[in-house]
Amino acid sequence: MQPQAFYRVVAADFSAVDEIIKQQLTSRVPLVSKIGDYITSAGGKRLRPLLVLLCGKALGHSGDDLRLLAAIIEFLHTATLLHDDVVDMSGMRRGRSTANAKWGNAPSVLVGDFLYSRSFEMMVQLGSMPVMRILSHATRVIAEGEVLQLTKVRDASTTEATYMEVIRGKTAMLFEASTHSAAALAGASEQQCDALRQFGDHLGVAFQLVDDVLDYRGDAEDLGKNVGDDLAEGKPTLPLIYTMREGTAEQAALVRQAVQKGGLDDLERIRDAVEASGALDYTAQLARDYAAKAIACLSVLPRGEVRDALVELSEFAVARTH
Question: Which keywords describe this protein according to UniProt (predicted)?
Fold first, then answer.
């Protein structure tokens, strides 16, 4: 499946969002502009701003305010990436050095703060209190999700329910905020707003579940990060939780010990264990289930190429290899 198909529907708007991002990144402090430009020019799928544009267009809304909202969402996402890489001590993202590896932790955190602050200035410029309410709530929930994940590092007793709470906060929330805020800005009905909010949540969960499968099945070059990163950090993701719960005594013990101590000493054995226990198939199937739930939410939108693009995007989110 070619992801370009669902970008094409909003190609002009997507290019305009890039221009807004470049304009809003300017700062009188050169290092701010340099780091901001470095991380935003790294590419990435930009799925969250894409969701804003597609959901707005599906509801018959387009224009400068929707493009500005898409840029705001990308700034919020980029700020979380800068902070995440510091917290996780990551050295690689999207196939190149992270900002913290290149400039150090302190500049990365502070430029992340700059991007958060800039996004709120842009929200004020947008002048929509419903959007402000959705996005300010989302940033708080994302921060809570990150802190919850931090408290579960090297905790082998983490349950599937807690894991789902973590990914709903740290990943799915910004997907949800993207689709929900676009609906609010477009003046959608209450039913449409709620359906698109749920669509974003389900899609975000599916996206993170696939990420957690790719941490074991993926290829470092394709992923643009190191395979096994989550394991190295001692994060109990669903493939590991499932293996500890459903695997053989030997598989469970191996994974439990790996989670508790972190590191990649037994990466190959653990990859074999999560594969053999059925954990990766279980997680991948759950991702497909959530993508199906997401697609079902789109029935509130008018039929047409934009709704079709949102369906394709949902299918791509679970079929991707990076």
Answer: Magnesium, Metal-binding, Transferase
Smallest CA-to-CA distance from 211 within 8, 10, 47 is with 47
Residue 288 tokens read as 């497909």
Model pLDDT, residue 240: 96
The single-letter code of the amino acid at 56 is G
CA 255 to each of CA 152, 238, 252: distance values in angstroms, whole numbers, following the listed order: 15, 12, 5
Q: Which amino acid is at 12?
A: A
Residues whose CB falls within 8 Å of the CB of residue 76, separated by 6 or more in sequence, listed in order: 115, 116, 119, 135, 138, 139, 174, 177
Is the model's pLDDT at 233 over the cut of 90?
A: no
Domains and CATH numbers, the chain: 4-319 (1.10.600.10)
Residue with tokens 């790996």: 258
**103 contact partners, CB below 8 Å, separation of at least 6:** 31, 35
Q: Which residues pair with 92 in a beta bridge?
A: 97
Considering the chain, what is the average pLDDT of its residues?
93
Helix ranges, the chain (H): 4-8, 11-24, 30-40, 47-58, 64-88, 99-103, 105-126, 129-152, 160-167, 173-185, 190-217, 220-223, 229-232, 238-246, 249-261, 267-276, 279-297, 305-319
How far is residue 284's CA from residue 212's CA, in Å, rounded to a whole number? 9
